[in-house]
Design goal:
Shape: globular
Distance between the termini: 40 Å
Number of helices: 5
Radius of gyration: 17 Å
Structural class: alpha+beta
Order of helices and strands: EHEHEEEHEEEHEH
Strand content: 15-25%
Largest sheet: 9 strands, antiparallel
Helix content: 40-55%
Amino acid sequence: MKVQQSYVVDSDGWDHAELVEVCRLVLRVVRAGVAKYETDIPVADGEWPVEVAAAAEVLRGVAGRTGRVEKGGYAQTGLVRADAAAGGNEETWEAFVMFAPWAYDAGVWGEVGELVSLSDEGRSIAVRLDGDQVEAVGQVIGAARLVPEKEWRAVWKQRRRERRSSGGDG
């Protein structure tokens, strides 16, 4: 097994379209090591692209079998197995990849722990990658955007100080 390190994707300044692309990139890069995944499915938003709404319906069907669906429409898939031997299928995985950037919370686990954590419609992206995966993601988003988790808190604090001193909301 390759050594993995935890990173936070520095998405500062990106719009939602950029976040969507990066979330999907990260999910595809880690795919080979995925054992299970989960997401919530908020109530349908009229601004979702057609393919995202269709993916949400696939995941809502999963939630009806393995998770939870509330009366108001909010749903959670529960843990979904990724490998075919355990009942997973590519249609559900692809629906997850399509929809995850619109979820409030989505997670992916390998056999030995969490690989990806997405929060707040893709605004927060934490990922565990090996060297080849770091290179693959870094080539697309820029290596400086992958901040080792141990360094992230310092980056975040510095950014907050800068925003406060410039009159931002911090």
